[in-house]
Design brief:
Layout: H1 2-10, E1 12-14, E2 17-18, H2 24-33, H3 37-40, H4 59-65, E3 69-74, E4 89-91, H5 102-107, H6 110-123, E5 130-135, E6 142-143, E7 149-150, H7 174-203, E8 212-215, H8 231-234, E9 238-241, E10 250-252, E11 256-257, H9 261-268, H10 283-286, E12 298-304, E13 308-315, E14 319-324, H11 335-338, H12 341-350, E15 358-362, H13 380-396, H14 411-415
Parallel strand pairs: 1-10, 2-11, 3-4, 3-5
Antiparallel strand pairs: 1-9, 6-7, 8-9, 12-13, 13-14, 14-15
Helix pairs in contact: 6-7, 7-12
Length: 421
């Protein structure tokens, strides 16, 4: 991971940056709109018929209007209709959301995408400012011939399972180590691809005037991570480099949400931030401006993935409060995690009834979020405070979950009877 480490050492690293959702499309939608999933409409997976609301505006729209030439490379997973994104240039021959086709996956592999980016940078003259969104398939799991969902260990340089560091929030078991070792192969591939792109920027002579952002959408595809509102599911990498602003190896531990990224980009570029953007710019934090108001909490949510899983959460620096709105398994395992080696190690313990409707964790005392203190007397003030703040946020943002179960996009088809047609 040398290239991303070098990027952090020459840029700025944010250690408490969280996605709005522990899943692909909703989190990406928040990154691109600066708004929460239940506000922008993308409450489930793009290839599951979920879409941003018709009037939603995303980052390339704002930048295009400001004179930037916009480019899309590789994976996007926000919509099945790429034209809706209104990029000026789309550098791919394949659909840009992860479906079941191996050809789609191959077109979005890190090395393939990075080579396309590098070639484009080599040919472009950059007479006007540009924005490039670059997405990789890695480190998604992929279904193998056996039916297992793994990380294609035969295609990457993986680690020795015995040498990997166990995850603190999961038991140390063979299948989990196996998957971790395979996943590291994809991580190394991403690192190499990042290096290819950074080299292309340098070779084009635009390094000193280019804002580089490296981020991820949610936590890794393991039990108690992806698909959960625990920190392991919501944590998202964030590294920025912009000479004179985000540089010198600066490290920040302030709470940030990925809805904050869009307004920050607009702020840095001196573009007005629309009033309906829900994130807040952390440009003042980077500029060491006293006007910056640090967040004391971030919100997160999940509604639909491969099944109905309605959850809302609030996290402060010390506490996490999670509210579930359905009868759910103890730990939700997305289909890819369930059918993985790691999933097989724990699903008899996790994929069983029933999850408590309320969870409260003292992150200082139990950072693994394995001690639910929601009913302990000494935490009742915290429970009431966080539940009130969560409810208020849901009410103020018209969260449909407060009115009952959220129907899937094809609800009309479900309600339709053959004898009524």
């Amino acid at each position: 991971m040398a290239r991303r480490r070098t990027l952090a050492e020459s840029g700025a690293l944010f250690s408490k940056h969280f996605g709005t959702a522990p899943q692909c499309s909703p989190s990406r939608g928040s990154l691109m709109t600066g708004r929460y999933p239940h506000v922008n409409g993308l409450m489930g997976l793009a290839h599951g018929e979920w879409e941003l609301d018709e009037d939603e505006r995303i980052l390339p729209h704002y930048l295009s209007e400001a004179g930037y030439e916009t480019h899309l490379f590789g994976l996007q997973h926000i919509t099945q209709d790429t034209d809706r994104l209104r990029f000026d240039h789309i550098h791919s021959e394949k659909n840009l959301y992860p479906g079941v086709s191996p050809a789609v996956h191959e077109a979005n592999r890190a090395n393939t995408v990075a080579d396309v980016v590098s070639e484009c940078f080599d040919q472009e003259k950059f007479d006007s400012p540009f924005f490039a969104s670059v997405g990789f398939f890695e480190i998604h799991r992929d279904q193998e011939d056996s039916g297992r969902f793994g990380f294609r260990g035969d295609e990457y340089d993986t680690d020795d399972p015995q040498s990997v560091r166990p995850l603190s929030y999961l038991p140390d078991r063979r299948g989990i180590r196996h998957d971790l070792a395979e996943m590291h192969g994809m991580v190394y591939a991403v690192d190499e691809a990042v290096g290819t792109i950074l080299d292309a920027i340098a070779d084009a002579g635009i390094e000193d005037e280019t804002l580089v952002i490296f981020t991820t959408e949610h936590g890794i595809a393991f039990p108690r991570a992806k698909g959960s509102c625990y920190d392991a599911g919501l944590e998202a990498a964030l590294v920025m480099r912009y000479p004179g602003l985000a540089d010198g190896g600066a490290a920040y531990d302030e709470l940030l949400s990925n809805v904050d990224v869009l307004p920050t980009i607009l702020d840095v570029l001196d573009i007005d931030v629309p009033v309906d953007v829900e994130g807040r710019s952390f440009h003042p934090l980077l500029a060491d401006d006293e006007s910056y108001e640090e967040r004391d909490h971030v919100f997160a949510e999940m509604t639909w993935h491969d099944m109905y899983n309605p959850v809302r959460a609030i996290r402060t620096d010390r506490y996490k409060y999670i509210r579930s709105f359905w009868h759910l398994p103890k730990v939700y395992l997305s289909a890819d995690v369930f059918a993985s080696e790691a999933g097989r190690e724990v699903r008899e313990q996790y994929a069983v009834p029933t999850r408590p409707y309320e969870e409260l964790y003292d992150l200082r005392e139990a950072p693994q979020e394995d001690e639910n203190v929601v009913y302990e007397p000494r935490y009742q003030d915290v429970r009431v405070d966080l539940s009130q703040r969560l409810y208020t946020w849901m009410a103020e943002t018209d969260d449909p979950l407060l009115d009952g179960p959220v129907a899937p996009p094809d609800a009309e088809e479900i309600r339709r009877w053959p004898h009524e047609s």
